[in-house]
Amino acid sequence: MSHSEQLDKILPAILDVQSNVKPIAKDDVNPHFGHKFASLGAINEAIQPLLTKNQLVVTHTLCVLPDGSSGLKTTLWHVSGQWIRGEMPLLLAKEDPQGQGSGITYARRYALAALLNLVQADDDGNQATQSRQNYQAQAPRQQSRSNARKPECIGCGLVQPVMKSQYGSGWYCNKKQGGCGAKFEDNDSNVFANSSEEEREIDRIFSNG
User: Fold this and answer.
1) How far is CA 79 from CA 18, 19, 40, 57, 83, in A?
2) Backbone angles phi, psi at 84, to 5 degrees
C-alpha cells in the first residue's frame, strides 16, 4: 500500500465511511462453487452515498506489477488531493476478453473490500439469528406467565405444591412441599377456562420445553 504524504483530510473521511457502512448483503452466487457473495454492484450501492458525503472518489486502473504480471491499482482519493492506494494481481481463469473482464471485476470487489474494511452479511443467517434471539427473549416471559397460573390441586385444593410434569402434559401435587401427591391433566382443572386455545397451546409448549 502507498499513500500521499499528508493524510489529515482523508483519514477522518474514511473513518466516517467505516462507521456508517452496514454489512453488505450477499446478492449473487458463484456458478462454479455455489457460495454466495456480495456483487460489485451491491458494494458500490452500499458505499457510494458515503463516499460522496465524505468527498471521496475511487479509481481503478490497470498496471504492471514489479514481477511483470498484470495487476489492478485501486486508489481512494480525497478532494483535497490526498490519497491511499493498493495494488493486487489479476488472476484470470481464461486468457480471453471474458476472462479478463471477470478477473478485473473480481479484483475490484476485493480491492474495495480491503481498502474500506467492508464485510458481507448472509441474509439467511441473519434471519435465523434474529428468529432465535426473538424466541429466546420471549421464552422467559411465556414461562413466567405459565408458572404464575398454576392450577389448584384436584385432590387437596392447594396451589403452591402444584408442579408441571416433566413428562408430557399434566401436573402433580408435590408431596415434598406439603402436597397430596395427586396427578392430573390440564383439562382436569378449570384454571385455563378463561384462556383461548392458542394461549393454552403456548403454555403447554413452553412449560414442556
Assistant:
1) 18, 20, 23, 8, 9
2) -135, 135
Most confident range (mean pLDDT) of 1-10, 115-124, 184-193 is 1-10
**How far apart are alpha carbons 205 and 23 in whole angstroms?**
36
Q: Which residue segments constitute the domains of the chain, with CATH numbers given?
A: 2-121 (3.30.390), 140-208 (no CATH)
E strands, the chain, in order: 2-3, 24-25, 28-29, 36-37, 56-64, 70-78, 83-89, 120-121, 162-164, 171-173, 183-184
Rounded Cα gap, residues 185 and 154, in angstroms: 10
Contact by Cβ (8 Å): 100, 108:
no
Residue with cell string 454466495? 36
Instruction: Summarize pLDDT for 107-124 with one digit per residue, the tens.
Output: 999 999 999 999 988 754
Instruction: Give pLDDT tens digits for 128-175.
Output: 445 455 545 555 554 444 445 677 777 787 877 778 777 666 777 888
CA dihedral sign of residues 121, 127, 128, 134? positive
pTM of the model: 0.57
DSSP state, residue 5: S
